[in-house]
Write a structure and sequence with these properties.
The protein contains eight helices and five strands, in the order αβαβααβαβααβα. With 164 residues, it is of the alpha/beta class. It has a single domain, classed as Leucine-rich repeat, LRR (right-handed beta-alpha superhelix). Keywords: GTPase activation, Leucine-rich repeat, Repeat.
Length: 164
């Protein structure tokens, strides 16, 4: 049985109460989680303000552009986060979703290590450029792993993101 937007609500309710978590790994790949589930997850993680290490794997789900907005509340409140691995590959995220994600990630000014996996979505050139604000604002970022392999060709230069 796969986890969907309805069945993830129990996990989200429990996570909301885990306010002292420092490290969290959530492997939720190969499910049917969509925008509603992603939004609930973002709201739940918002309460985990002490997190310093987060691995969130949501690859192979049903997340589209609106789902990336749902992660925003978590990114706004988890200001102590230093290490983030976010895997959203094989969803249906487009240019707007990638830009939303870039804006949300820009809130993590203490981030030192970021692994961002967005392969096999529909991000395109504009979406890739929309990730720029995240890298520009994360002045403490020392390690970056970025995967953007797409079905269509992306004319993208990593150097653009790393210039300060």
């Amino acid at each position: 049985m796969q986890i969907d937007d309805q069945s993830i609500s129990g996990l989200c309710s429990a996570l909301e109460k885990c306010t002292n978590l420092l490290n969290l790994i959530l492997e939720l790949r190969y499910n049917q989680i969509g925008d509603e589930g992603t939004s609930n997850l973002g709201s739940a993680l918002r309460n985990c303000t002490n997190l310093s290490n987060l691995t969130l794997s949501l690859s192979y789900n049903q997340i589209v552009d609106e789902g990336t907005l749902g992660l925003g509340p978590a990114f706004e409140k988890c200001t102590n986060l230093q290490n983030l691995t976010l895997s959203l590959s094989y969803n249906k995220i487009g240019e707007i979703g990638a830009s939303n994600l870039g804006s949300a990630l820009a809130k993590y000014t203490n981030l030192t290590n970021l692994a961002l996996f967005l392969s096999c979505n529909q991000i395109g050139d504009e979406g890739t450029s929309g990730l720029g604000p995240a890298f520009e604002k994360c002045s403490n970022l020392s390690n970056l792993q970025l995967s953007l392999q797409q079905k269509q060709f992306i004319n993208f230069e990593l150097q653009y993101f790393l210039q300060k």
